[in-house]
User: Fold this.
Amino acid sequence: MATEQPRENRHDEIDAILERKDGVRETRDEADKYTVVGAVSRDTYANWLTPVEEHFVCHRNDIPDADADSWRVSLTGDLEGGYSLSELKGEFPTVAVAHTMECAGNGRGQHRPETGSVQWGNEAAGTAVWTGTPISSVLHDQLEDVADGTWLTAIGGDPSDGDDVFARSIPLSKALDDCILAHEMNGRPLPPEHGFPVRMIVPGWYGVNSVKWVEELRLMDTMVVENSLDRPGEHAYWQQKSYRIHPADVEPESNETVETGDTWEQLETGEPAHPYAFDQTVMSLIGAPNGESPVSVPDDGTVEITGVAWAGDDDVAGVEVSTDGGDTWDEAELFGPDYAGAWRLFRCGWDATPGTHVLASRATDERGRRQPMRISNPDAWRDALEDDEFPWNEGGYAANAVLPNAVEVDVESP
Assistant:
């Protein structure tokens, strides 16, 4: 189908982004269809706030030539009306939300054998402060007698070169809890590559759910399935086929609903059989030392290891750090800002000795779920989590293994 075809325009978009953002670089895309840039250095993960210049970008279709004055978000399905950008700004409250955005394919390039498409290492994550209008305020007057299990579908205005429509559904309960229609990023107007003029932000969930260039919000009894939207084209690809976790050579079945948006819980229970990439799995990254240059041991012999950890809708309960490739572990200290849906900083003192060392981190969430040590082989699938492995999957989604994200550091004598 059209979503599998190369897209020449992505190269122009990437070049333009790289001219504006010196903290990112192009990421390898085997399918030659996505506009993808990621953080250049691990230094990004030693800080709580990610500058726009270092924040990753990922999208499939061309960036629309949007005009802020004429852009309108339509309300459809069991909703009526719509709002311009100026009305969203002027007629409703404005809030700021801290959100760790992570591409569901972050870590795809760590799978062996490789999966197709974008070969992310660990560079597709960043935390920004998004400013905009609460979806709860926009929909407030139209939610009488709404049934439990209702879904909100966001549809992007990005032009497709095929017949697919970029649409993603999330539970209405999540949308009303903490989601916004954002028009600013880190206090600046939303950049085109991040969704200008309006982007839905779904805190704690994988980036694919935070639809860019939103032109329609549709209230539905189910998730988007084929032919569920009042428009031509293929509707369900991005919900029901892509961004599903499954072994090789499997065609996931469409589902009208799921019991939970917790990705890890879907993996553990097997319901549905092939999980959806919704809530982020527990994850951590060391930012400093970054492994790019040798570390000199200070006079007191202690090197500070700093990084970030996140767990989607859940809190991070703790982080451990290893300086010997995972053989032994020490508790790190959580510090800095503490906002739901955003990562936490962690630090740990290291009595460093000269030589080469492999530094690794592993986080545990408030439900006791800890990052697995490695990615499994393709045959493991459902048994992987029991063996302290994240299941290899054909799309390379939701990976959060410890060792593929370790960093090798050379320590010099004082």
